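Hello forum,

I keep getting stuck at the same step: I have a sequence, I want structure tokens, and every attempt I make locally crashes halfway through. Rather than fight my setup again tonight, could one of you with a working pipeline run this one for me? It's a single chain of 321 residues.
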Amino acid sequence: MTSGSTDYDDFFNKTAPPEKFEEKICIINSFVQYYKASDQKLVLVTSGGTTVPLESRTVRFIDNFSIGTRGSASAEYFLDHGYAVIFLHRQRSLLPFHRHLQHNMLDCLALQSPETNSHIYVNQESTVKLLPILQRYSECQKNRRLCLVSFTSLGDYLHLLRVACQSLRPLCSRAMLYLAAAVSDFYIPSDQMPEHKIQSQGEKPLHLSLELVPKMLKPLVKDWVPDAYVISFKLETDKSILIGKAKKALEQYEHKLVVANVLDTRKKEVILVTKDKEELLALSDEEEHRGMEIEEKLTRKIADLHLDFYSNSAIETKTSH
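Reply #2:
Ran it on my machine without issues. Output:
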């Protein structure tokens, strides 16, 4: 590290920005600028996993299991709650609205004239399910309320996250960050990667040296968007350590909320951890049976918390003047 630099400065110096970086910066800035003069609340939702390339011309990489279920569902519900949404997502992970078609697209369609194969239509059962989804999607597209920006690697994600924060900073407490992406804890600096595909060496094992990714939540809260409502996520497999780790994160980074969840029950319940308390949100058996998603309850509660935060910030601003 050079004199005066920080570990996260060092990280950005060691990782290349994503492809079409300038184009994506323009997309984010244009979307935020569109709402800058209004009182519209904006949320940046991050979603999906991050790859860690092992070569510069990447063939192999380290990955995780996240496909963006929580992030894509949450983005939809935030739109329902009146937010404009920047959806920073892993390429080819689940997208808001599109996620409902991921596994059954062909099952939704039928041939009107099987003999000639000349016409395709959406069958009646699928029409009933898809019509309200299409109406919601068309409405948010018409009113320019959803901005999609993709990433692939860990480096891509963090470069774009910093840019998005810089763009959102002037919105102060109107901005919310919902950091649901599954971010790798380790990476290989660009200058330590081989350019080409790593070759197997007979029966010799491959040894990798990975560096720790700096905790970007610290500069994000302190410097990048100091007035925004910032939410992080904590996923554990051991429930006994979950709340302790969530509280430690709040103490260390001083953001507003941690959504804590256990791997095995993450689709049915979450715990909202703030500096002062913990609150369990859970689906009842009846809610689960009728297909309700935990993200519906989660985003409704968070929208209320953000509204209180925004209202109090506005009062404080008026008082100070």
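The domain at 7-198+207-319 is CATH 3.40.50.10300 (Rossmann fold). If your local run keeps crashing, start a new thread with the error log.
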